[in-house]
Amino acid sequence: MNATNAQVIIVVGAGPAGMAVASSLAKAGHEVIVLNRDIKFGGLAEYGIFPAKLKLRGGLKKQYWDLLQQPNVHYFGNITIGNGNDLTVEDLRGLGAGAIVFSSGAQGTKSIGVEGDSAHGVFHAKDVVFHFNRLPGYGDRPFEMGKHVAIIGVGDVMVDISRWLINYKKVERVTAIARRGPVERKYNPKEIRSVCSNMDLDGIATEFLRIKDRLAAVGQNADDVRKGLTEEFTKCAPKVSDAKMGFQFLASPKRILADGHNQVRGLELEENKLEPKGDDTAAVGLKQYYEFPCDSVVFAVGDKVDPSLGLPYKNGVFVTNPNKTGNDPDDALFQAYDETTNQVIDGVFLAGWARKASEGLVGVAKRDGDWCAEVVSRYLATKVPANVTAVLDTLATLFKARKSDPVDVKGLHVLQSVEKQRQGETDCIGEFKYASTHEMLELVKKGKA
After folding, report:
1. Could you give the C-alpha distances from 412 to 63, 141, 154, 295, in angstroms and in order?
2. 216/337 same-domain check
3. Domain annotation covers residue 183
4. Is there a smaller number of Cβ atoms within 10 Å at the N or the C end of the chain?
């Protein structure tokens, strides 16, 4: 691309989707400004992947470092977008950039909606994952889980949390609770290897006896299903604790049971049956209830976007254009939309979990970012280029006026150098990380002085 045709694009969020957008558009010769809530880039790749997966995390980090050191990519961490924050959506739209892409993730938490969910010992899965990944605001907060933890859900996030509880928190028991049956489990068989040394095989056999008639009612043979489930327990990681892990199938949480100090003491679960639903099954409550004792409950029920960002919002998601364009990928899927005026918000796009909360992990988010970049490229072809120096100067003025503390790539290098020197000093899983924004900012300022 000729430099005179280069546009300025602002990308909000430096997770897998945002970095994919930034990479595609920077390679096309555009000037890309990345604004990130966290000091560090990476988003889900930094604070969502289990921290012991050093090879996967390391590969992603290298890609992101290479991108941010390109001369046409400008990074500002520790900048929060939203009403009352460092910058608003209207501030961004007033900068004169060719396009703005919001890839800020799903920062909100879905309401659990179960009676008693305010009891001590009730957690959202995302908060727990942020904690063991040492995200500021979560990493230095105590998460007291007790001896027996119930996790609602049977996906990969459940496995990661179980791994942390069993290998690092040294709890006595973890039970994954599923609305449906073992056939409908969602975790990757390769992921279960991290905890399968601790599987309570006798308890699993007892659980299958409990539900075998309900499985048979939809043509599932309990013995065959149990064999398929337990045969996945191969190449298990070495056992490091005596914790037991098991499952409670065909059960829906109806109420959190708490003691006189409002501390979790158990769950009230409803028995479910399975009913065919097309090629799948659905859980149907039997209105039969029982108590399940536990010390804490983790709800892995997905996330929603944060409405305080300032984009049109409805039912847990930002609103996108309902009018399909027929392009591939369809522009409408990525265009922010104002339902009060029935108009596309010109030049504003969505990607990743900001577009579709909790949809897939790193690979899916990256693909979404690549698709969004294609849509933005088509849009930019009709626009007059902006001056990146003018946009950056205006940003700097706004940062100063708002008393913001942006961290650039030079600051990230300072922080990385200090953290490398402290590897192995604490009980961090994987690499050492500071869990305090204030501490990181002080180190950056000192290192750049």
Report:
1. 15, 24, 36, 40
2. no
3. yes
4. C
